Amino acid sequence: MRPPWLLGRAASTAHVGPLSSMSMRFEIVTIFPEFFKSIFEHGILRRALAENLIAVGVHDLRAFTHDRHRTVDDRPFGGGEGMVLKPEPLAEALAALGIEPRTERQQIEVSALAPEGSRTRVILLSAQGLPFTQTVARELAALDRVVLLCGRYEGVDERINQLYCDQELSIGDYVLSGGELAAAVVVDAVMRLIPGVLGNEASGDFESFGVADSEIATDAEGVPRSQHGAGGLLDYPHYTRPAEFAGLCAPEVLLNGDHQQIRRWRREQQLRKTLANRPDLIERANLSLDDRRVLESIRKEAAQRDRNG
Q1: What is the DSSP string of 122-150?
Q2: Interatomic CA distance for residues 101 and 282, integer angstroms
Q3: In terms of Cα–Cα distance, which of 210, 194, 12 is closest to 95?
Q4: pLDDT band at 1; cut points 50, 70, 90
Q5: Partners of 68 in beta bridges
Q6: 248-249 vs 244-245, strand pairing mode
Q7: Residue 83 near residue 53 (C-beta atoms within 8 A)
Q8: What pLDDT is recorded for position 18?
């Protein structure tokens, strides 16, 4: 029996979980649809599907072939290693999803004829793509529909990219066997930013790569906030009970109940961790004058340690 989330040629409007006009829709085109089964059955993603906050369709690319062997790939023109995904099955899969070529789709979306819920982006997952970041995830979370094409073998015929894709994305500077893992990463990162998916609406504001303080409206229920918005920095370290473990104690500042002290400590830790692990983020981060003073102090400490050997 076909799993309820596995779609064939004629089932392009069926989705995991119930579908309503309020759901954001992800469409995944792949030659390994079974790959996604366990991903949709656990954690926040399962709850988001069950509560109709998102909908996901997984489409088997081989359903859009016409030969006995269900061929989706062929040798590359010009020679070279590996095989390339053919353009015809991908074009048919996109047509079955109602996806027009990019230029036609863009003309419709900017016109007065654009139907409600038509904001769509077609993405090719590829090692040659632009980096997938939290900023890109926020952009995608504002759309109505995201179509993810999972590359395989040596890649996808470039004409599909030219004709249909709005964006080519990579999840990191390494090569995967295919785009399925990358598609799962994109769905997970994007759906967390959709209102109602996380139990606490503010959770996404206060984690790594979260928004700046200026984008967070107010403290909840008048309680002083003990966190800064990340503003593009990494998250601060977290501790929970017991207060002492394996001879190590949780920082005293976290135990005293002074929200302002906790907030200052956490911001300093964000800056320390980002400077140590991702110094490239410092240049792009939304930093206050106080942040810059703390950074200068951290750098002086490091220089002093280097001098002392």
Answers
A1: EEEEEEEEEEP-HHHHHHHHTSSEEEEEE
A2: 39
A3: 12
A4: very low
A5: none
A6: antiparallel
A7: no
A8: 44
pLDDT of the residue at 17: 46
**Residue 302, token pair as written in the block:** 């490091």
pLDDT band at 200 (very low <50, low <70, confident <90, very high): low
Report residue 259 as tokens. 């929200």
Instruction: Please report the sign of the dihedral spanned by the C-alpha atoms of residue 99, residue 90, residue 148, residue 61.
Output: positive
**Other CB atoms closer than 10 Å to residue 274's CB: what's the count?**
22
Name which CATH class applies to 6-191. Answer: alpha beta
Local confidence band at 210 (pLDDT 50, 70, 90 cut-offs):
low
Percentage of the chain lying above the pLDDT 70 cut: 83
Kind and range of the H or E run holding 121: strand 120-131
> Looking at the domain that runs over 205-307, which CATH code has it been given?
1.10.1270.20
Do residues 8 and 60 make contact, with C-beta atoms less than 8 angstroms apart?
A: yes
How many Å apart are CA 11 and CA 8, to the nearest integer? 5
Q: What does the pLDDT look like over 93-132, one tens digit per residue?
A: 999 999 999 999 988 877 766 666 679 999 999 999 999 9
Collapsed DSSP state (helix, strand, coil) of residue 56? strand
Parse the chain into domains and list their residue ranges.
6-191, 205-307
Q: Report the predicted TM-score, pTM, of the whole model to 2 decimal places.
A: 0.86
Query: CA-to-CA distance for 124 and 155, rounded, in angstroms?
Result: 10
Name 6's bridge partners: 58
- Token pair belonging to 91: 């074009």
Closest CA to 152 of 198, 86, 204, 211: 86
Name the token pair of 264. Answer: 């200052």
> Roughly what angle, to the nearest 10 degrees, separates helices 180-191 and 134-141?
70
Nearest residue to 268 via CA among 216, 228, 232, 211: 228
Residue 302 reports pLDDT greater than 50: yes
Q: Which of 261, 265, 212, 211 is nearest to 237 (CA)?
A: 265
**Which of the pair, 15 or 243, is modelled with greater confidence?**
243
**HSE of 102, CA atoms in CB hemisphere, 13 A:** 14
